[in-house]
Amino acid sequence: MIQKIQELKSLEKKRNPDDVYGIDGNQTTILLNEGQNGEQILIKSHNGMYINIDVDDGAIYMNSNGKVVISAGDNLDILSGGNLNIKSLGNIIIQGSGTTAVSASGNLILSGSQVLTNTGGSPSASSSTPKGDRK
C-alpha cells in the first residue's frame, strides 16, 4: 500500500536497517522520502524484507528472510573502495568453469584447521610451518 503524502510527512526516519519504518498489519510499503529527515527510497514487505536506498548515508541496505540471488547475463563485477568482507555461518564455495585465479598485491594468507590442496586426486594437507621448525 502506498501511503498518503500527509502520512509520509509525519514519519520519523530511523537509521537502523532492521527497523526502517514500522508497518502495521500485513501492509507492503513503497516510500519515496525527500523530506527534512533525509532522502530515501524504501520498499518493505509486511514480513520484514526490504531494500532501503539511503541517499544521506550513501548506503543501500537489503534484508531477506530467505535467499538473495544476483544474476548477470554477462560479467558481474564487485568493486569496493575499501575492504571487501564476506562472512558465512556455513560453507563458502567458489567455483569456476574455467581458470580460477586468486592474487594479491600484498600477502596472500590461507588459514584453517587444515589447508587442503587438490590437483585432481585426493586432497592433501599442507602446513605453513617450515620443515626445519618441525619436531
SSE order and pairing:
Blueprint: H1 5-10, E1 29-35, E2 38-44, E3 50-54, E4 59-63, E5 115-117, E6 124-126
Antiparallel strand pairs: 1-2, 2-3, 3-4, 5-6
Helix fraction, binned, reads under 10%
Q: Indicate the proportion of strand residues.
A: 15-25%
Structural class: mainly beta
Tally of separate helices: 1
Spatial sequence of strands, sheet with the most strands: 1-2-3-4
What would you note in describing this structure?
- The radius of gyration is 23 Å and the shape is elongated.
- With 135 residues, it is mostly beta strands.
- Helices cover 4% and strands 22% of the residues.
- A hairpin with a 2-residue loop joins strand 1 and strand 2.
- The strands form 2 sheets. A 4-stranded antiparallel β-sheet has the order 1-2-3-4, with no helix packed on it. Strands 5-6 form a two-stranded antiparallel sheet.
- The protein has a domain of 59 residues.
- It has 1 helix and 6 strands.
